[in-house]
Write a structure and sequence with these properties.
The protein is built from four helices and five strands; from the N terminus they run E-H-H-E-E-E-H-E-H. With 149 residues, the chain is of the alpha+beta class. It has a single domain, classed as 3-Layer(aba) Sandwich (Aminopeptidase).
């Protein structure tokens, strides 16, 4: 049975890291720049309430996650927004609507926190835009990256 819940990074870091490594292994081809994660920054954001994590667990084991930054919207004073940092469902659990349910649970929690909108990014090399479209997201821009020497 899959359960969905909000958790804190400092509580799940040890089990989060191996699943993140699997995530990076799948999508790192297009990463710009290559991942060198600043865990102190993430833990600080977690402690400040800026980081929001919704997890999916199968029989208690971490199977997926959706991480968002909850921030004031710089284009709309007085409003909060959520920007997806990373989201992932282990391949063995990508059956049915597990990923859809994970994102819906995250959206529900973000809305309860006062977010007026959510922004997600879709990796062009690992396209999951079908999930975004199903959840009624609409494309608004293309993100480009250039790494300096």
């Amino acid at each position: 049975m899959i359960t969905y819940q909000t958790e804190h990074l400092h509580d799940i870091l040890d089990e989060f890291m191996p699943l993140l490594a699997r995530n990076i292994g799948e999508v790192d081809v297009a990463e710009c720049p290559a991942a060198n994660i600043n865990w102190d920054m993430y833990l600080g954001f977690d402690a400040q309430g800026v980081l929001h994590i919704t997890t999916a667990r199968v029989d208690g084991e971490l199977a997926g996650y959706a991480l968002f930054f909850v921030l004031p919207d710089p284009h709309n004073a007085g409003r909060l927004m959520a920007e997806a940092d990373v989201y992932y469902m282990a391949p063995e659990h990508r059956k049915g609507f597990a990923a859809i349910r994970l994102m819906r649970e995250a959206e529900k929690e973000l809305k309860q926190r006062g977010c007026r909108h959510v922004v997600i990014r879709v990796n062009m090399e690992h396209d999951c835009s079908a999930v975004a479209r199903y959840l009624k997201y609409r494309p608004i821009e293309t993100v480009w990256c250039k790494e300096f020497d």
